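Retro notes - structure team

What went well: the batch runner handled both jobs without manual restarts.
What didn't: labels got mixed up in the shared folder, which is why I'm recording both outputs here explicitly, each with its sequence directly above its tokens.

Job 1
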Amino acid sequence: MFSLLAAADIELRMVNVGGGFPAHYRNDVPAIDGYARAVMAAITRHFGNDLPEIIVEPGRSLVGDAGVIQSEVVLIAEKGSADGRRWVYLDVGKFNGLAETMDESIKYRITTPGRAGASGPVVLAGPTCDSADILYERTEYRLPLGLEVGDKVEILSTGAYTASYASVGFNGFSPIQTYCI
């Protein structure tokens, strides 16, 4: 593109390499410097020493790990399924900021502070009566067997986009509160 436009006497001075740099969810991710080296090698190969201004959109890789959603168990149901999974309903769901769990796209790390011991498979769901408010049904999540209504559940690496995804008043639920520490 730069070469074609230069031939038409149009000089571009900037290249935006975009984003897509991942946050740390359930899988390990390469360090950001690995991405930077690959991008710079490609740009140097193309431009030599005449480098344009470079713009990067690091997005979630910068802020994802900075956020934690603290939720609470509002219901635990055993629905008699053959796989023995308990349904654990939290006070936060897809419509309270966890929209990226749609199709189980982003798989957040989940902890249960103060609860340890043997664990079992669960389906995680949000608090609304909307049938889409199921966070994880196909992806295996395990939570302590001793988990009870009222226990805290922390959803980690939720610093990117969750607050802006939260619906205002959906099904009567307030959007999640945001605190900056």
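Job 2
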Amino acid sequence: MIQFGSLDYAELRFQQIRATVEIRDKQWIDVELHFELEQGLTLPDDFTELTALIFCTYSGEIAQMVPQDEGRDCEYQFTADEKAQLIHFYEENVKPKLLSLVS
């Protein structure tokens, strides 16, 4: 996680990822990812509940991915490695189901 305006960051590893899909309108689909952190890792002190919100097109392409705290915007962004973990989960586990829902 990288806090906006900071040079410091912490690399998180996610496990037990689960997804919730919400078809928002005719253009966008929201995918919320919930997860546990790998043992021994901790969230920054000012977090309560970290999740990832992915905005997708009807073709399953990711338009944007943002971290959230308790379902709200926060002052952090994911590192490249954190994004890669979440994108891998999405591509393997969520995207095929999402495409079957909208086709």
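One thing worth noting from job 2: The CA atoms of residues 21 and 33 lie 9 Å apart.
We'll revisit the folder naming next retro.
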